[in-house]
Amino acid sequence: MNEFIYSEKSDFASAEELAVMQEQLLKRHLLYCRDNSPFYRDILNDMDISGNSFDILEQLPLTDKSQLNASPERFVAVADREIRDIVFSSGTIGAPLPVPYTARDLKRLAYNEYRSFLACGMTADDRVLLTCTLDRCFIAGLAYFEGVRAIGAAAIRNGLNSLESHAEVIRRLKPTVIVGVPSFLKRLAGFMAPSMQGADGIRMLICIGEPVRDRELKLNSLGQTLAEQWQAKVYSTYASSETITSFCDCSIGNGGHLLPDLGVAEILDENGKTVPEGEPGELVMTPLQMEAMPLLRFRTGDITFMTRKTCACGRSSFRIGPILGRRQQMMKINGTTLYPQSVFTALENIPEVADYYILAHRNEHGLFTDAEVHVAFASEYRETCVALVRKRLAAHIRIKLPVLAEDISSLRTKVFSKENRKPQRFFTVSGRYDDGI
Ligand SMILES: [Zn+2]
User: Fold this and answer.
1) What is the pLDDT of residue 177?
2) CATH classification of 1-323 is 3.40.47.10, yes or no?
3) C-alpha 85 to ligand 1 mean position (Å)
4) Is residue 219 within 8 Å of residue 232, measured between CB atoms?
5) 320 alpha carbon to ligand 1 midpoint, in Å?
6) Ligand 1 center to residue 43 CA distance, Å?
7) What is the per-residue pLDDT across 19-43, written as a single tens digit (0 to 9) for each?
8) Ligand 1 center to residue 252 CA distance, Å?
């Protein structure tokens, strides 16, 4: 296999040229899966895979996380001694899933993040503050660190540290870029205000884990708040531990670009059919050039939409919008489909709301058919605020949900757990759901 060496061609080739390149890489990937992955060998051995690899891919069944959880060893396509790093994939229901990487997979990881950071405008002159963990069996922090190194910029690995610590690091080391979870960066700016000492040189925030764009790909209210607080450009990047293939904003900030030599992406409806451009569906990924745990048509569980229009940056690669929700968090309330993210977006637009979470209830079939919204207010006039939120929510999501006022400190203890930087805002009566990276 080729080494991962960047050429502008892999970014700026025409859609037709990209399709030819992807078809060849996908063919190689299918053969690799058939020859090395016990799980996929059983599926591919019975198929003729000599034709167009996109057509073959379409005929393949989807791979669900529950299949990986049931027998992770059947997805491992290399000998034990080839494995160099093992992480746990967080998120969804069930035990965390072990995901192994070979030395080449780690090179791919660095290359993937290098390409993403390059696209949104990071340079070797940057100093990049990483506010995510590099250990605890997570992959994201390591990916960002490797990406920063590959660009030639300087990394500041302050990780999952306190607001005080990050403020001090910013004052002393004067980063130019911060990588972090948007709601944490909002709190950090609030903590550092009004002086924002040391933050003048910060020109770019690269946001992970929460959407900062809306359905029109413009900054949502959280993204706008960040841009104002930090006086910086706000970008978004998305990936998962299993696929380690990023979708990152380019410098235009117009949705996340797929890196065409590293993955094939599909957006599918509940019946596994491709949805039209702009329509929401589940992101299904076939990461290319993977060794240790190659996957075919992996269901990420994330709901988004795509566009194939050539971006103003000149790239014609597949782009996705913000993550609108998780498949597992889909609610059907009075027959209407609703994702928690729509409620969050509406709440972010109400200045009186200081913080919030959703508590969802399942029916006897396991579907979420009922939910209540718990809100802490910045104002003392709780009753007026509850009425306001109820009205605004009904207008925004077209569903009436019960709104309950809560004390801000107890609400934040629930939302911001110590072990996770990313806030948890979706709870069920029996537990909570994580969102992955
Ligand atoms: Zn672009």
Assistant:
1) 98
2) no
3) 32
4) no
5) 11
6) 37
7) 999 999 999 999 999 999 999 999 9
8) 6
Distance 228 CA to ligand 1 centre (A): 23
Domain ranges of the chain: 1-323, 330-432
- Ion ligand 1 residues within 5 Å by Cβ: 250, 252, 311, 313, 315
| 311 C-alpha to ligand 1 centroid (Å) | 5
The predicted-structure confidence for 117-135, as pLDDT tens digits, reads as follows 999 999 999 999 999 989 9
Instruction: For residue 19, report the distance from its CA to the centre of ligand 1, in Å.
Output: 18
CA 272–ligand 1 middle distance (angstroms): 28
CA of residue 430 to ligand 1 center, whole Å: 42
- Distance (angstroms) between ligand 1 centre and the Cα of 377 equals 38
Q: How many angstroms is it from 256 CA to the middle of ligand 1?
A: 8
* The most confident of 82-86, 377-381, 422-426, by mean pLDDT: 82-86
Q: What is the mean pLDDT of residues 367-383?
A: 88
Cα 250 to averaged position of ligand 1 atoms, centre (Å) = 5
pLDDT, tens only, 262-307: 999 999 998 899 999 999 999 999 999 999 999 999 999 999 999 9
Q: Say which range, 74-88, 230-244, 355-369, has the weakest mean pLDDT.
A: 355-369
Residue 319 CA to ligand 1 centre (angstroms): 8
Report the separation in Å between the CA atom of 312 and the middle of ligand 1, taken as the mean of its atom positions: 6
CATH of domain 330-432: 3.30.300.30
Ligand 1 centre and the CA of 386: distance in Å?
41
